[in-house]
Amino acid sequence: MAAAERLALIATCASGLEEILDGELEALGAAARERQRGAVRFAGGWRECWRANWRLRTANRVLVELASWPAEDGAALAAGARAVAAGSTPGVESESEAPGVDLAALLHPDRSFAIQATATASRIRDTRWAALSAKDGLVDGQRDRYGRRSDVDRERPDLHLRLRVIRPEISSVAVASHRSAVAVVVIRLLMFEWPRRFPHGAAYWPAKLET
Length: 211
Fold this sequence. Notes:
With about 210 residues, this protein is α+β, with helices and mostly antiparallel strands.
């Protein structure tokens, strides 16, 4: 697989199931696997993304990582999120060049969003505060870029974002790529809408995969 075709993917799971999830991903041929608390990070293209959605049993959702940046406090969280939304990303490792992901279009103010946060082994422990800091940064970045901001819709967002603070110095923002049968939150930007909005991903619709 060419480097330009690789997505940074994260399969999340209940704490304690990481080894089992890693084994499932290994059986699917997932590359560059990295166990984290409550998740396994791996690399692949859209085909691997949809296959993971379809075949993994231990995972509760599969995320596509959009960007990561150093963040030790709320100000750094907001600054990194603002840079991502504004399109000026010094110090931010952006995955926006992945096929089918146009970060400017994805974070456009016409699209409502909701954001949730998780924190693992981090000095940032209040996840609601972390999500609020990232939300403030995202909408400030939208104002910088477009002169207006998205609505936040916790009930039926167009885009459901997940902020993950996984170490004291690293934060990342990701978008859910599927709706899990065991997820409490209904993810709207997923298999029903993603292929239509991002045609490069449509080629790997799960129905086209071999069993």
